Amino acid sequence: MAGTKTLLSWSSGKDAAWALHVLRQMGQVEVVGLLTTTNAAFDRVAMHGVRETLLEAQAEAAGLPLWKVPLPWPCPNEAYEALMAQACARAVSEGIEAMAFGDLFLEDVRDYRIQKLAGTGLTPLFPLWGRETGALAGEMVAGGLKAVLTCVDPRVLDAAFAGRDFDGRLLAELPSSVDPCGERGEFHTFVSDGPMFRAPIPVGRGEVVERDGFIFADLVPA
Questions:
Q1: What is the domain extent for residue 47?
Q2: How many Cβ atoms are within 10 Å of 64's Cβ, its own excluded?
Q3: Where do runs of H (alpha helix) occur along the chain?
Q4: Signed CA dihedral, 198, 14, 122, 84: sign only
Q5: Cβ distance 137 to 184 under 8 Å?
Q6: Are the C-beta atoms of residues 38 and 121 closer than 8 Å to each other?
C-alpha cells in the first residue's frame, strides 16, 4: 500500500536531509519530490548560498525530482508567498497530499507554515518536531550524515566556523548559546552524504566571503 504522497521542503541542509531519512523510515509516507527556493539572480539556494549544480546533485543522490521555486532578488514577502502558492497548487494537481518540513522547535515558523497550507489541500508534516537538538545533532553525525557549514551569522558564531565540517568536534566546540542544529539561524549547512543518499556528492572548498551581514563558504563540485 502506497503511503501519503509528500513533497519535502528542501534547503540543501542537514535538517531537511535528516527529515527525508526519517520520513522514509516511517513507511506511511512516500516522498515524491524536493521543493527548494532558489535565488534567481545568483543561481544559488536561498539563504544557504549553495550552487544550484550541487542542489541538483543532491536530488540525483536522493533519487527524487527537484522542484525549484526561483525567487527574485530582492524578494518581497508577497512575491515569495505567491510563488509558493503556485507550487502548492501544482502539487495538489499532481496528486500530492502533504508537505513536510525539517523544523525543530520554532513555534512561529511552524505556525506560519500551517497557516499558509490551510485550505491548499496539503497537510503539513513535521517529522523532527520537538526533538532535543543536541541529541538530534549527535544522531545525525553517528548516522553517517556529512555536512559543511556554508553560512554563518557572525553576530552569534565566530566566522571561522564557516566552511567547517558538521561533526562531533564542531558540536563540542559550539558555544553553549548556539543551538547544536543552528535552528535559530546561527548557521546553515550543505549535506554531501548520508543514509538518505545513494552515493556521496564530491565537493571542494571555494572562497569564504561576507555578504549581507553573513559569512558564506562557497562549495564547488569536485
A1: 4-221
A2: 18
A3: 14-26, 52-62, 77-93, 107-117, 133-142, 168-173
A4: negative
A5: no
A6: no
**Per-residue confidence of the chain (222 residues) as pLDDT tens digits?**
468 999 999 999 999 999 999 999 988 999 999 999 988 777 788 776 899 999 999 999 999 999 999 887 887 888 888 999 999 999 999 999 999 999 999 999 999 999 999 999 999 999 999 999 999 999 999 999 999 999 999 999 999 999 999 999 999 999 999 999 999 999 999 999 999 999 999 999 999 999 989 999 999 998
* Nearest alpha carbon to residue 53 among 197, 204, 166, 160: 204
Q: How far apart are the first and last CA of the chain?
A: 40
Count of structural domains within the chain: 1
Q: Kindly report the CATH number assigned to the domain that includes residue 36.
A: 3.40.50.620
**pTM to 2 decimals?**
0.95
d(CA 27, CA 179): 30
Q: Element (H or E) spanning 209, and its range?
A: strand 203-211
